[in-house]
Amino acid sequence: MIFTGTSYNVNLLLLRIPLSYSKQSSGINAEYGDVLSEYFLVFFLALSSMLASDEDAQCRKGAGIAIEDLVRRANQDSLREKVWSLTSSWLGDKKLKHKYLGVLLVETLAKLLPAKRAAILSEQLVEAVNTYCVYDSEDENATSTRDQMVYVGVVTLIKLSTVTTLPLSAYDRLSELMSYPHQWVRLAGCQLLGHMLSTYDPKTLLINPSNVLSDNPRKKVDELIKLSLLQLKSGNILPDHALQIVKNTVWLTTALLHAKQGIPEDSEVLPLQDVIHKLTVFASVESSQDPTNSIKRGIILKWVGAMVNTVNKDLLEPYLPAMVAPVHREVKNANSPLTDIATELMSLLRECLGNDVLSAALVSSDKARSERRRKRKREDALAAIADPERHAKRKVKVNLAKREKRKEKYKTLKKKQYKTL
Length: 421
Fold this sequence. Notes:
The protein has 421 residues and is mainly α.
């Protein structure tokens, strides 16, 4: 095809436009404002296709920056309205890939959305996330796109919260998000929970409940605590995920500590003493079974430090023996990767609580630990007398497990030696 005259100049200009892109910013040269307005939708659709389906991450990132720049430079409100309408229609489409494209566009253009349009798109976004966050293991073909859509959708909702108020339905699927198989989705779910909690005061939440937690707030807080504890069961926790778990757990336990006295405890909910015990058990189990990994112990130490630093010591005093136990264990263990952090934390505890209170808590913790050991030994001795054969089998099983663990530890150390050579 041969271009002449005006068509030749226009097409030559279209070919020159990609050459004016910056490698770092993917920005668009303002020199071509008239052409951008005339061929706005052509560029927008081409870049949208690249944003959703390009295999190269850098190209997708560049397409997102170019789309944002293109919409920002649109000199007519009608052009932007077309973008919002297309995004809304893709979010409402039945095809998962179209929904994913709509989610990506909302995430890319979140800073440019007017408040009214952001409110409309946030409702559609919530509907899409709530639909697909219910994991279906039988649907294997769309798993990757589903994971990406749910993760980007939740992150985008948090972004939109700076522009508009999120609908209450945005928090309806916290349980599904925080128990999702993909760890990035669980991270996003924890961040969404943290965003929801940040809108309340933990000191007054259970006294004057409102909005999301207005109906049976104690039971809902208990559900949120159980979801936070569920995150700690994962064998692979990302650093950002660990930090968000600390923030959420500090907020929830602080709310329970400041609960109005005299509120009857529901038999179905966890008492605060059990919550603190379960948190410290994660640290003790990791210390005994996986001492080379310190992520869970680090979470518990940060939680203890945050609680002591922010909550009145009179409220914490009944629970201090359980809380100082993981700190004391790490201080005594010279080979622990957390020894320095635990030592600093012990100094903070002494400063905030005072020597007398801290010493009493440590003595009480040691007594409780010694009593548990004596009780366990007594139960083992009684079990050996009551059923010697079963006790012998159990002892053999324990010894075999210890032998396998020593083999695994030897292999791990050997691999590390080879890596250092």
